[in-house]
């Protein structure tokens, strides 16, 4: 019974602790990249990938 | 007694999940930044490669070599992007729930831990493929 009570307290206070940890880390180390920032790289990847793959080697000089 | 034991076991599992989530939150922010940095490095290398292949003075052999390297590296980098996105969204959703004073529940916390592991794997796998492309482009 005591064990269940202790675990109950941990479960009740845990979320606040996790939230605090998340904020603390963000404050200490700066915000992690946002989805918009990640997607910006994705768009650039798609553009560069298409440019590379669409290039025709036959239009280049031979060795 | 079995009922108390049952509750205690679930309580321990719940506490472990909270601890695991706390670990993911601290390591997660770092991993999220590292994975973002790796994906960004790949995109920068890819953009540099695009400039190289567009130069008509560059021999056809080199263009083919770069195209092959990109074909190998791109799926790895894309897997990294997808795992990063999935983890970041799950982490943000959980943070928002905590901010609102709620509790995300075991299913979300378990999923976050799984996404964290997946992102760790794809991040470590991406290193070689990305480094190979970066080295190839830098050599030109």
Q: Which secondary structure elements does this structure contain, and how are they paired or packed?
A:
The complex is a heterodimer of chains A (63) and B (140).
Chain A: H1 2-29, H2 35-54
Chain B: H1 2-54, H2 60-99, H3 106-138
Helix pairs in contact in B: 1-2, 1-3, 2-3
Task: Sum this structure up briefly.
Chain A has helices at about 1-30, 35-55. With about 60 residues, chain A is mainly α. Chain A is rod-shaped and about 50 Å long.
Summarize the structure in words.
The complex is a heterodimer of chains A (63) and B (140). Chain A has one domain. Helices cover 76% and strands 0% of the residues of chain A. Chain A contains two helices and no strands. Chain B has one domain. Chain B is 90% helix and 0% strand. Chain B has three helices and no strands. Chain B starts with a helix and ends with a helix. At the A-B interface, α1 and α2 of A face α1 and α2 of B.
Give the percentage of residues in beta strands of chain A. under 5%
Number of helices of chain B: 3
Described by strand count, sense and barrel closure, the largest sheet of chain A is: none
The profile of the biggest β sheet of chain B is:
none
Poorly predicted residue ranges of chain B: none
Taken as a percent bin, the fraction of beta residues of chain B is under 5%
Largest interface: A-B, 42 and 58 residues
Distance between the termini of chain A: 81 Å
Instruction: Compute the number of strand runs of chain B.
Output: 0
List the secondary-structure elements of chain B in sequence, H or E: HHH
């Amino acid at each position: 019974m005591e064990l269940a009570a202790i675990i109950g307290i941990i479960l009740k206070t845990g979320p606040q602790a996790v939230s605090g940890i998340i904020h603390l880390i963000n404050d200490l180390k700066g915000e992690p990249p946002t989805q918009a920032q990640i997607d910006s790289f994705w768009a650039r990847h798609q553009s560069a990938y298409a440019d590379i793959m669409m290039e025709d080697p036959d239009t280049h000089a031979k060795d | 007694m079995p009922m108390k034991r049952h509750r205690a076991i679930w309580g321990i599992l719940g506490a472990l999940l909270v601890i695991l989530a706390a670990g993911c939150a601290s390591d997660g922010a770092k991993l999220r930044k590292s994975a973002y940095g790796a994906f960004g490095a790949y995109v920068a290398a890819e953009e540099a490669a695009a400039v190289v292949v567009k130069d008509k003075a560059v021999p056809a052999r080199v263009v083919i070599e770069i195209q092959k390297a990109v074909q190998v590296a791109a799926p790895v980098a894309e897997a990294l992007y997808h795992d990063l996105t999935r983890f970041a969204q799950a982490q943000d959703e959980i943070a928002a729930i905590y901010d609102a004073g709620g509790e995300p529940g075991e299913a979300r916390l378990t999923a976050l831990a799984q996404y964290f592991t997946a992102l760790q794997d794809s991040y470590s796998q991406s290193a070689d493929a990305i480094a190979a492309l970066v080295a190839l482009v830098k050599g030109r």
